[in-house]
C-alpha cells in the first residue's frame, strides 16, 4: 500500500486523488479551504465534473481517500495547487511554495515530491529544490523531485487522466522513474520521461501553441468581418489543407490555463517573446470587439437589456476562471447596458444566475457568450415571445442562424461581416 498526500483538492488534485485511491493507494487530500475539506469528508464534490460524484463517494466511503488540513508522512506528495497570475502578469507561486513548506516536515527517506501545478520554467530546480533541501536533506539522494504537468480538459478529466500521454520530468532519472511507476497505476497513454525543466517547458508551450493559434483565428475573424465574408467558411475550407488547422474564433480565451500560461514564458523571457505576448493581447481584446458589435446592434435603444447566455469560460463546464463572458458583462455595463445572465452550469457566479426565462424576459438582445451545447437547442419562437427586442449576437456560431432569422431576429455572428 502506497501512502499518497495530495496538496490541493481542486480541478486536478481531486480527480487525481480519486484515481489513485481507486488504484489501491491510501490517499490524504489536503486543502486549506475548510469548505472543500468538509465536502470531501462527506464524500461530496465541490466542483462539477462528469463521473466525479459517484467515484468520490465510493473512495471516501471505503476510507481510501480522506481529507485533512495539514499533510502527514507519505511515500509520495503531489502538489496540485493553483498558480494564478498576479496583476502584473507574473506567476504567483505562493501556493506552490507554501505547499512545499507544509509537506517538508513529513518527508520520509526516499519520499517522492511531484509538482503537477503548471509553473514557470525552472520552478523545480530554483524554487522547490531549495525548500526540500532545507535542513540538509539532498534532493536526488534523500528525497526525489519530479514535475508531471496535468494536461486534462475540464469536462473530460476522468477520460483524459487515463488516456492522455504524460510527460514526466525528474530532477534526476530515478525521480522520473519513480513518478512513472505511480502514474502507471492508472495512465493507459504513453508516459515519456525527461528532465524537470523540459517538462515545465513542454506544458507551457502546449498551451501557448493553442493561444497563439486562437489569436490567429480571432484576427482572421476580424479580417473576415471587415471584408464582408464568413470566417467559419474560411476556417472550414482552409482546414481541408492537410497541414492547416485553423482554430475557432471566439469572444476571448478563458480558463486557468491558456490565458495564463503564456505569461509565464513572457515573465521569464520578456525580451524574447514578442509573438507570445502579442497573441495574448489579441485574445484579450476580443471581448471589447464583441461589445463594439453588440452595442452597435443596440444603437438607439435607451438603457438596453442584454441577456447574457453563458458565464463559464467554455461550453459545458461550470468553470468561470478568466471567463470572457465575465469581461463581456463588465464591458457592457460600462457602456450603459443592463446585463442579465444565465448559465446552466455555473455556480457561485459574481452576478445573479437567472433562469433562462427570467434572463430573456424583456431583453433587447440575446448574447451567446459561452458555447454550452444546450444553447444550440434554444427555440427562437419561444425566445422571441419573452424578449422585448429581436436581436441575437452569437459569439461562437452556435445557433442555427437561418431559424433565428426566420423567427424575426436580426442575427449577427462573430467572424461574419
Ligand atoms: N478557444 C477558442 N478557440 C479554440 C479553442 C479554444 O477560442 O479553437 C477558447 C475556449 O473557448 C476557452 C479557451 O480557449 O475560452 C481555452 O479552452 P480550451 O478548451 O482550449 O482549453 P482549456 O483551458 O480548457 O484546457 C487547456 C488544454 N490544453 C490544450 O489543449 C493544449 C488542456 O489539455 C490542459 O490540461 C489545460 O489547458 C491546462 O490545465 O493547462
Q: How many strands, what sense, and barrel or not for the largest sheet? A: 8 strands, mixed
**How helix-rich are the residues, as a percent range?**
25-40%
- Ligand catalogue: ligand SAJ
How would you spell out the order of helices and strands?
Answer: EHEHHEEHEHEHEHEHHHHHEHEHEHEHE
Cα-atom radius of gyration? 23 Å
Q: What is the mean predicted local confidence, pLDDT? A: 97
Shape: globular
Q: List the strand order in the largest sheet.
A: 3-2-1-4-5-6-7-8
Secondary structure tally, helices: 16
* The number of domains: 2
Ends apart, CA distance between termini: 61 Å
CATH topology of the largest domain: Rossmann fold
**Known CATH architecture of the largest domain:** 3-Layer(aba) Sandwich
How would you describe what is shown here?
The protein has 417 residues and is of the alpha/beta class. The protein folds into two domains: 3-203, 3-Layer(aba) Sandwich (Rossmann fold), CATH 3.40.50; 229-417, Rossmann fold, CATH 3.40.50. It has helices at residues 13-22, 34-41, 52-61, 94-103, 123-132, 157-163, 173-183, 196-227, 231-238, 261-268, 274-284, 286-297, 324-334, 356-360, 380-386, 401-406; strands at 3-7, 26-30, 65-68, 74-79, 107-115, 144-147, 166-170, 191-195, 305-309, 338-342, 365-368, 391-394, 410-413. The strands form two sheets. An eight-stranded mixed sheet has the order 3-2-1-4-5-6-7-8, sandwiched between helices. A five-stranded parallel sheet has the order 10-9-11-12-13. Helix 8 crosses helix 10. The longest helix is centred in the middle third of the chain and has 32 residues, at 196-227. It is globular and about 70 Å long. The N and C termini lie far apart (61 Å). The model has no long low-confidence stretch (mean pLDDT 97).
Amino acid at each position: 500500500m502506497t501512502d499518497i498526500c495530495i496538496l490541493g483538492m481542486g480541478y486536478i488534485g481531486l480527480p487525481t486523488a480519486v484515481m489513485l485511491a481507486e488504484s489501491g493507494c491510501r490517499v490524504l487530500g489536503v486543502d486549506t479551504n475548510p469548505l472543500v475539506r468538509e465536502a470531501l469528508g462527506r464524500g461530496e464534490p465541490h466542483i462539477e465534473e462528469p463521473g466525479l460524484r459517484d467515484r468520490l463517494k465510493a473512495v471516501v466511503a471505503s476510507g481510501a481517500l480522506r481529507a485533512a488540513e495539514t499533510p502527514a508522512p507519505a511515500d509520495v506528495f503531489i502538489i496540485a495547487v493553483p498558480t494564478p497570475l498576479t496583476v502584473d502578469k507574473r506567476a504567483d507561486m505562493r501556493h506552490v511554495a507554501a505547499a512545499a513548506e507544509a509537506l517538508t516536515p513529513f518527508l520520509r527517506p526516499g519520499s517522492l515530491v511531484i509538482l503537477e501545478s503548471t509553473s514557470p520554467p525552472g520552478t523545480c530546480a530554483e524554487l522547490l529544490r531549495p525548500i526540500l533541501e532545507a535542513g540538509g536533506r539532498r534532493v536526488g539522494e534523500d528525497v526525489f523531485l519530479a514535475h508531471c504537468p496535468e494536461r486534462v480538459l475540464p469536462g473530460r478529466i476522468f477520460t483524459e487522466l487515463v488516456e492522455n500521454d504524460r510527460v514526466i520530468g525528474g530532477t534526476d532519472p530515478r525521480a522520473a522513474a519513480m513518478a512513472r511507476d505511480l502514474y502507471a497505476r492508472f495512465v493507459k497513454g504513453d508516459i515519456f520521461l525527461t528532465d524537470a525543466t523540459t517538462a515545465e517547458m513542454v506544458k507551457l508551450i502546449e498551451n501557448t501553441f493553442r493561444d497563439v493559434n486562437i489569436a490567429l483565428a480571432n484576427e482572421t475573424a476580424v479580417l473576415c468581418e471587415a471584408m464582408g465574408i464568413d470566417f467559419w467558411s474560411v476556417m472550414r475550407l482552409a482546414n481541408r489543407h492537410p497541414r492547416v488547422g485553423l482554430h475557432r474564433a471566439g469572444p476571448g480565451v478563458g480558463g486557468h490555463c491558456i490565458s495564463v500560461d503564456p505569461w509565464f514564458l513572457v515573465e521569464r523571457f520578456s525580451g524574447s517573446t514578442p509573438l507570445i505576448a502579442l497573441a495574448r493581447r489579441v485574445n484579450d481584446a476580443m471581448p471589447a470587439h464583441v461589445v463594439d458589435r453588440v452595442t452597435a446592434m443596440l444603437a438607439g435603444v435607451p438603457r438596453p437589456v442584454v441577456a447574457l447566455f453563458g458565464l463559464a469560460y467554455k461550453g459545458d463546464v461550470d468553470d468561470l476562471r478568466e471567463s470572457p463572458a465575465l469581461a463581456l458583462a463588465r464591458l457592457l455595463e460600462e457602456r450603459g447596458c443592463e446585463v442579465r445572465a444565465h448559465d446552466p452550469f455555473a455556480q457561485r457566479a459574481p452576478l445573479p444566475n437567472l433562469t433562462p426565462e427570467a434572463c430573456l424576459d424583456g431583453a433587447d438582445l440575446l448574447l451567446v457568450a459561452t458555447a454550452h451545447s444546450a444553447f444550440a437547442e434554444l427555440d427562437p419562437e419561444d425566445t422571441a415571445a419573452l424578449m422585448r427586442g429581436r436581436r441575437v449576437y452569437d459569439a461562437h456560431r452556435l445557433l442555427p442562424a437561418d431559424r433565428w432569422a426566420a423567427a424575426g431576429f436580426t442575427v449577427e455572428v462573430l467572424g461574419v461581416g
